[in-house]
Amino acid sequence: MVKKNACIFISGFGSNLKSLIRSSRDPVFPIKINLVITNNPNAQGILHAKKYSIPFLIINTRRRDYENIILREINKNKISIICLAGYMKIISKRFIFNAKKKILNIHPSLLPKYKGLNTFEKVVKNKEKKTGCTVHYVNEKLDGGKIINQKSFYINKEDNINVIKEKTQKLEYKAFPEAIVKIFRYI
Ligand code: GRF
Fold first, then answer.
1. What is the pLDDT of residue 163?
2. What is the rounded distance in angstroms from the CA atom of residue 103 to the CA atom of residue 105?
3. Residue 91: which of 135, 139, 146 has the closest Cα?
4. CA 170 to centroid of ligand 1, rounded, Å
5. In this structure, what CATH number is given to the domain that contains residue 71?
């Protein structure tokens, strides 16, 4: 099978990057990861890229033209799909339009509930019985694109924010690879 080239954007820990790298090592998984991009020179996730010898790029987002630099790299590496895995920058409308790629994001709530930041705090505050994660296409609305995959769990009374985060992230490591398989199955 011919795998599609993927680029993963990260800003922090990179545990989703790690799960995607693991999945991509399976010969029948539809993508290979050619590039990792981060806006954070201290992102721990860079270590996963290093470990698996995946080229990575630290981008200075203070430069006005930083999205153009990313676009050039995306095109140079013949990237077909961009996965936002804990990337803490908003992608501009212009980037989405010019990239003309599939752009996916993983979000730690059952969208459309709790878009944006501090999702676990919001879940606890609203005494939700159930939460989970969502993989969706990225469009110009924050966490508003078409949903590809969701996974959920019931919250126990004793679950605090940390436990909820842990349970959510465990589901994320399944949800993102599944979403990628799903979108390439139908083309
Ligand atoms: C994940 O919980 C994801 O849903 C959110 O940011 C977090 C990234 O974690 N968008 P990691 O860097 O993949 O460990």
1. 98
2. 7
3. 139
4. 11
5. 3.40.50.170
